[in-house]
Amino acid sequence: MNDRAAAVNGAAQLVDGVAPRRSVREELEAAGLEVVGPCERLSARRDLLRESVFLQDFTPEEADVLGEAMVQIRARAGQVLIAEDDASDWMLLLLSGTVDVGKRKVDAEYNPDGDLNETTTRLAVLRAGAALGEMSMLDGEPRYASCWALSDVEAAVLTRGAVAKLITDNPAVGAKVLVKLTQLLAQRLRNTSNQLIRHLADKAPRASGPGPETV
């Protein structure tokens, strides 16, 4: 095995090193989401390829290879796509629709049948082209936040196993996926750092001005 092949196999094993808890189809169907099948002809969504940060560097041919490795799902308005604290090995790429992202408030209990707006703090509203859930996809750790559909939604699911297979079978596409995931995580970290800095600045005591002169 040459050095390049060894590197490819090593990257694939690293990505696929955490065993999934259950199949992605079982998980999606248990959540009430409609599983359509492979996300074919991703290149036909020209606006998505142009506007999605995740897809911008993919050629139409590469986008189709990526799409074949993904599973297309549909959700109705109000359905939960990702539940906080669930352990999963996949991420989502929004194809159409709008998704709310929220973090459970302190001491609030998760109730999927309740009003999520009352028990969660909104973190973001995401639209077509956005990627979400990549952290848990890579490390298999529990989800940090919940995501639910604000409108009818179409999304493509990318699993850790699919990324590992892309690295092995289509190294150029697999490498681009890894680069995009790295960029996403770096941007998330930068945004979190900036928010923390602003929060600390707001909490810092204000320096008092000079008092009135005394004679």
Automatic annotation (TrEMBL):
It comes from Ramlibacter humi. GO terms for cellular component: cytosol. This is Cyclic nucleotide-binding domain-containing protein. InterPro entries: cNMP-bd_dom, cNMP-bd_dom_sf, Env_Response_Regulators, RmlC-like_jellyroll. The lineage of its organism: Bacteria, Pseudomonadati, Pseudomonadota, Betaproteobacteria, Burkholderiales. Residues 54-167 form the Cyclic nucleotide-binding domain. SUPFAM superfamilies: cAMP-binding domain-like. Gene3D superfamilies: Jelly Rolls. Pfam families: cNMP_binding (PF00027). GO terms for molecular function: DNA-binding transcription factor activity.
